[in-house]
Each structure stands twice: as C-alpha cells, then as structure tokens.
C-alpha cells in the first residue's frame, strides 16, 4: 500500500543482507544519523513529522520493520528469538548505510526492539530515546516490578489474546468508525488521547492497514493453555515476540559494556503502556470482560511503568543514565500528539549524545 510522504521525506527500497524494505529518509546524507523504529500495527510513516523537524545537521532514517508496511512479506518474525529479528534488521540497515553508530528512537514495539539493541549492540548507539516503550519484560503475564511470570507457560501473553474482529477489519481495509473495533476507532479511543485527531489521519490509517496479516505475521499463532486466560504464546509474529517468554536476559542490559544516555518520554494518559493498560488481561479480567479471572494474586495487572523504571534504575546504578519525561495531555504517541513539546526534550537529548565531530560523522 503506497502512502504519500511529507515534503522533505524521501522513500527508497533497500535490500540489506537480511531484508528488503521501504526506508524513509530526511536531512543531509552526511548528517548525524537518527534511526527511528515504529510500533506495532504501524510503519515508518508515523515518524515523518519528527523526521521532518529534526535539527539541522541530522539525518533521519526510518524503516518499515519486518512484518509491516512495505517490508518483504516473505520475511517473518521468529518469536522464539524475541525481537532479535528486528534488532538484527536494524543493524543490517546501518551496515548497508556504512554507519558505525546512530541515535536510536523506538516507540511501543519499536521500544522493545531498542531494549534488545541495548543488550546486543550497545557499542553502536549514540543515544537512546524510548517513547512509550513496551516493558523490557514484554507484554502480559508478569506480576511485579521484577517481571515474575504469572505462569510457567506465560499464558496471558502472545497472539492468542488479540481481538479477531479487529484483525478481520484490518485485513478488510476498513477505514470506518462503524463500531469500537475498527482501526480508526481504536486509534482515536486508545492510541491518541481523545479528542485528538491527527492532521494526517488518513496516512496513519493507511500505514496501520499495511500490517502483514496471518498466523506467521500479525497477530501470529496461539497455543492453548490450562492456565487463565487459556492461551499461551506461539512461535511466529510480533505479538508472540513481545511475550515475556522470549524477552531475553535483562541482565545483559545492566551488564552492557557501553551504556549510553536514555531519554524515556511518555504521555501521561497512555492507555496502551501503563500500570493499568486497557488491553492487559489482568485489567480486562478484573472488569469481567475476560471471564473466570483467577484474581489479583494469580494474575494482576502488569506494572509496565514500574518495570521500566526499575530496569532503568538498575541500568543507571551500573553506570548508565536515564531521564523520565511525562507529557501532559498525550496518549501513546506524544511525538504525534504533542510534537513541539516532544521535540523540545528529544532535540536536547540527541544534541547531548552526539559524540561525532563534524568531520567524523557517518565514518566507520
């Protein structure tokens, strides 16, 4: 699905050693590189306003990640690797562009990819900006700040919990407001803080509808479980890759030999990533929306923000640093909802993290 781009944004089809995909660019070719990684059910399109408003001397780079947009539909996310496929794809793109290091920015699922980059490729990061990232422990089926699993099989996480009606409407290309589960309705009620409607809503809807759909794509496959809510993560797709079952060893985050500065920035009214997230089975069970909830002791709401704060606190104690910024009046994508306020913090952060002298940028 072709999505028009803003003035100042160019699109190219690039084939790296791992994947062929559409990549958006902004700014001068010799600018300090800033790599943007989008969230679930979206694409690089969501970053265009931020890319177009980068400070002088910065080069924006935003790929359609595996499983989304114009990425090769034959390239699947192997969930048992967590988000390792997407992390490796990002580094392969930097290699293709002959970039040794880059500032990295992730939102939601893209933030989970950034956690993985911080574990696997810390020496290649100039700075990290986490925008409403998923918990470093993944989504679902953990009960405390340390990410303790609710069950051994991680039931309550993975693809089996995604509303099938929502998936059908994406596959059908639905652009209406006819019911709560249409893509447009979900964006307006859950992703953005009402009554916000983005100026480029049609492009954002087109981006969402370009999500690859199937048992090996979105949402992925599920596995029946004897534990509530009776579905455990399968082997394919982004939602299974987000399961805590496959999140990886977070000790690697703390033990990373290179620790760059982290800006954690989020909307105060985020319903997607919070300690009481709207789609968390623990929240829905307590409300009676998912029946037979076993109670808060067995399956509480996942404390996503507390988990992130705890993990970043350990990171800071081990020699890293982080700053948490909360933007009032914004939901899950403050970089779209409150662009100017987001940029105020974001630009300051990347300017402080740019260690390349002007004549050394983009050189290996």
What does this 3D model show about the protein?
This protein is of the alpha/beta class. It has one domain: Alpha/Beta hydrolase fold, catalytic domain (Rossmann fold). The protein is 29% helix and 18% strand. The protein contains twelve helices and twelve strands. The strands form three sheets. It has an eight-stranded mixed sheet, with helices on both faces. Helix 2 crosses helix 3. It is globular and about 55 Å long. The relative contact order is 0.16.
Element layout with pairings:
Elements: E1 10-15, E2 20-26, E3 32-37, H1 48-52, E4 58-63, H2 84-96, E5 102-108, H3 109-120, E6 125-133, H4 164-171, H5 183-191, H6 201-209, E7 213-214, E8 218-219, E9 222-224, E10 231-233, H7 238-241, H8 251-255, E11 261-267, H9 281-286, H10 304-317, E12 321-327, H11 334-337, H12 339-353
Determine Rg (CA atoms, Å): 19 Å
Mean pLDDT: 95
Strand content: 15-25%
Distance between the termini: 35 Å
Assembly form of the protein: single chain
Shape assignment: globular
Number of beta strands = 12
Question: Could you state the order of secondary-structure elements as H and E?
Answer: EEEHEHEHEHHHEEEEHHEHHEHH
Helical segment count: 12
Poorly predicted runs are 354-364
- In CATH terms, what is the fold-level topology? Rossmann fold
What's the number of domains? 1
């Amino acid at each position: 699905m072709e999505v028009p781009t803003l003035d100042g944004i160019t699109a190219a089809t690039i084939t790296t050693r791992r994947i062929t995909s559409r990549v958006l660019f902004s700014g001068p070719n010799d600018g300090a590189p800033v790599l943007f990684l989008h969230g679930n059910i979206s694409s690089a399109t969501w970053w265009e306003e931020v890319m177009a408003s980068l400070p002088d001397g910065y080069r924006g780079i935003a790929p359609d990640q595996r499983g989304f947009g114009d990425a090769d539909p034959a390239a699947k996310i192997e969930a048992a690797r967590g988000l390792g496929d997407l992390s490796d794809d990002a580094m392969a793109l930097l290699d293709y562009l002959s970039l040794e290091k880059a500032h990295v920015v992730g939102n939601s699922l893209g933030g989970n990819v950034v956690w993985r980059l911080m574990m696997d490729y810390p020496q290649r990061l100039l700075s990290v900006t986490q925008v409403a990232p998923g918990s470093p422990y993944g989504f679902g089926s953990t009960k405390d700040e340390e990410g303790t699993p609710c069950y051994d099989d991680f039931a309550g996480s993975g693809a089996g919990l995604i509303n099938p009606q929502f998936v059908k409407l994406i596959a059908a290309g639905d652009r209406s407001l006819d019911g709560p589960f249409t893509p447009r309705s979900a964006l307006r009620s859950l992703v953005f803080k009402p009554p916000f409607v983005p100026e480029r809503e049609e492009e954002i809807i087109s981006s969402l509808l370009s999500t690859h759909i199937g048992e090996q794509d979105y949402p992925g496959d599920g596995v029946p479980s004897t534990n509530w809510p009776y579905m455990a993560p399968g082997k394919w797709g982004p939602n299974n890759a987000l399961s805590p079952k496959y999140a990886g060893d977070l000790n690697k985050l703390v033990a990373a030999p290179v620790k760059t500065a982290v800006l954690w920035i989020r909307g105060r009214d985020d319903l997607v990533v919070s300690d009481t997230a709207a789609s968390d089975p623990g929240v829905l069970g307590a409300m009676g929306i998912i029946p037979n909830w076993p109670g808060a002791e067995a399956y509480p709401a996942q404390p996503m923000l507390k988990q992130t704060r705890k993990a970043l606190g350990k990171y800071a104690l081990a020699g890293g640093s982080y700053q948490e910024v909360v933007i009032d009046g914004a939901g899950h994508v403050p970089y779209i909802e409150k662009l100017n306020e987001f940029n105020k913090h974001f630009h300051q952060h990347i300017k402080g993290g740019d260690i390349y002298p002007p004549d050394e940028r983009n050189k290996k």
